[in-house]
Amino acid sequence: MEEHELKLIIAQADDAINREDFDAVMSFYAEDATLVVMPGKQVTGRDALRKAFVAIAEYFNHTLHVSQAEMVVIEGAATALVLAKTHVRATMSTGEIYDVERRATYVFKRAASGRWLCAVDNSYGTDLLQ
Amino acid sequence: MEEHELKLIIAQADDAINREDFDAVMSFYAEDATLVVMPGKQVTGRDALRKAFVAIAEYFNHTLHVSQAEMVVIEGAATALVLAKTHVRATMSTGEIYDVERRATYVFKRAASGRWLCAVDNSYGTDLLQ
What we know:
The structure is a homodimer.
Chain A: H1 5-18, H2 22-26, E1 29-38, E2 41-44, H3 46-59, E3 65-76, E4 79-91, E5 97-110, E6 116-122
Parallel strand pairs in A: 1-6
Antiparallel strand pairs in A: 1-2, 3-4, 4-5, 5-6
């Protein structure tokens, strides 16, 4: 598929997460977006998302590095379903390396301004199904 | 998770597909929704979707039966990401039985009327990633 503008937007969001620039991170989300923090735990709203990102950074000992490899974007009705191979890497406080690849699913919607904002951030994809 | 209203809506849409009531099927989609017909082939817009559903019914010898087993709904910013174990069954014209389970990903959005409409219908889920 051809390069979709969301690929650059998501790369910029990843960069903000990796730099722990949480104000920048929040600018990629809709006001009442939902983040799946881990299977069975999700938070909604920018304030709750910001707290979750701060806690995640702490959990990963401030070494979290997220990036996307292959990505598929399917646009419809001013929304987009993004499927991505997401790479999550960190060095835990024990010195152990955390290194996983997930098949993530993100929903973006086009704001009235024309800007894409993330509405649902579920890096666990269909693994949430039993 | 508690029962989400989208579970009933999707069951009604499946029933309409199984009855080949294409007018009813179309009423579940946003005007410019996108359907992934098969990996690498997608169509956008109610007219194109209707034609695709007619062709799919024909392809499956008018014996197509779709249903969802487990479903997870993640709502955010007036959209919803639906993850579902989708069961697709049919008897081909050769007499062969087609029987597969997919891990589907659907995006719904809330219309101004408050009604949920499907914006992206991708029954192949993250299998579209190589």
